[in-house]
């Protein structure tokens, strides 16, 4: 495995990236490829490179404005061997075949010193300007990295820019390997000079720093103890330190830096390990800032993922506590909404040749439901084929849960009725049936070892599903159980929602009676059924329950013919010749779900 190293005029204009055999890469100032945005003489897409395992093929692209120089001559296509380089504009690209080998065979250091994070934060920079200038670029380095590998490259490059005496730097991560033994992965590394030798970070040093959660410095050659000279000459290293990064988004991460006390000509000659405190403080600030920004990005990703299920109010609760505790299953008083998409089977037959188009339409239709649930502070619980389920009352108690659920249901109804009025609307042919029930349930992260999801479990869920199924029988778009209907009458004014008692039924397969009510929009939004019409229907229901069926039949005929719900009672009375059966108790048995 080889690396390509790009180096501009300024030291910070640099990167090292690993080449994968057979994978073509575009070089240029474009963010889509390996970018050299610092060099305006490099075209947006300047050259294509491809490593074949032993040589690098470089081809100048037609879009390139300036030539590529190799061995002092312009070329449009050529092969490169490790150790050779080419130049585009003011940037030199070097092919390096150097390995990184985390070594346990490093000699014992002459000195070892640990520096706590608090200590490094409290000491003052002795030469602050250069470090602060580099640190000011750190937020842009992290926010501008769209992928983790890109972030690794940028961080290592920034560390090398800020530690002038560093000969190499690496971003490492300690992981648990086979048999529980720690394993060190080098996420990214770079060195100032191409030497052809392996880069050997000290395993002992890295593990010690991560274990102690402090910066640890090893010195192999100093004025006090000139030891292991063969090692220091071979590796070009007098010292190395590792600074842990920490944080939930960087578990086991650390920044490893190694270098020499005597650097470039003109530098101050010193072999005092305490002179590295500025570099340690700089690296500690890089680590702390990286940890903080990565944690923020992790929270943003988690919030974005959770926002598909939770409303902003619920997300605030999650941020205020431990998610494992907040999301733990527990009993709660909840209101459950089941919403089923009607017309799916018919559309499936018609759209057999355009299944993706059908999927998009169904996704949009279900999106109406999920948006309304979240808009009213609910939790998106689950999808069941072409149905969606939401609930209120968890993880935070919501005394107005029934009202919130009903507002969501009316918003869904309004959206589909508006679509139905426009024949070209993708949702025009879809209808929704909604059932809402209130009661005790267990809500939270529920599932098995293999799969866990946030949902709600209990009889109230089955009841809401049954109510949704009854909307087909009773011809009512939205049905409520008795508890929800009672809460809505108390909490929502008629200018927002109305409730009509529909019937007392015995659901198919159940023994318990159930008073079913319909949720209606206000009269201003649904003039087809006035408040007087609703009152006439409910009086007819009272007459039915009391066994006065002729009077009930007459009252039902005062309700507009456009009302499909009255057909259920009208047909039931007619089937029994307007005469209640013996032992009539007011309960109508349903023959199907």
Overview in brief:
By secondary structure, the chain is α+β, with helices and mostly antiparallel strands. It is built from 17 helices and 26 strands.
What does this structure look like?
The chain is α+β, with helices and mostly antiparallel strands and 593 residues long. It folds into 3 domains: 3-96, Tumour Suppressor Smad4 (Sandwich), CATH 2.60.200; 111-298, GAF domain (Beta-Lactamase, 2-Layer Sandwich), CATH 3.30.450; 322-492, Alpha-Beta Plaits (2-Layer Sandwich), CATH 3.30.70. 34% of the residues lie in helices and 27% in strands. It is built from 17 helices and 26 strands. Strands 18, 19, 20, 21, 22, 23, 24, 25 and 26 form a 9-stranded mixed beta sheet that branches. It has a 6-stranded antiparallel beta sheet with strand order 2-1-11-10-7-8. The chain is elongated, with a radius of gyration of 36 Å. The two termini are 64 Å apart. 39% of the residues are buried.
What tags apply to this protein structure?
17 helices; 6-stranded antiparallel sheet; elongated; Alpha-Beta Plaits; Tumour Suppressor Smad4; 9-stranded mixed sheet; 593 residues; Beta-Lactamase; 26 strands; alpha+beta; 3 domains
Topology of helices and strands:
Blueprint: E1 3-7, E2 14-18, E3 25-28, E4 34-35, E5 47-51, E6 56-60, E7 68-70, E8 73-75, E9 77-80, E10 85-88, E11 91-96, E12 111-115, H1 117-122, H2 128-135, H3 138-143, H4 148-162, E13 166-176, E14 182-191, H5 203-212, E15 215-219, H6 229-235, E16 239-244, E17 253-259, H7 277-306, H8 312-319, H9 323-326, E18 330-342, H10 344-350, H11 355-375, E19 379-384, E20 387-392, H12 401-420, E21 431-447, E22 452-457, H13 459-474, E23 478-480, H14 482-491, E24 498-506, E25 514-520, H15 531-545, H16 549-556, H17 566-575, E26 588-589
Helix pairs in contact: 2-7, 11-12, 15-16
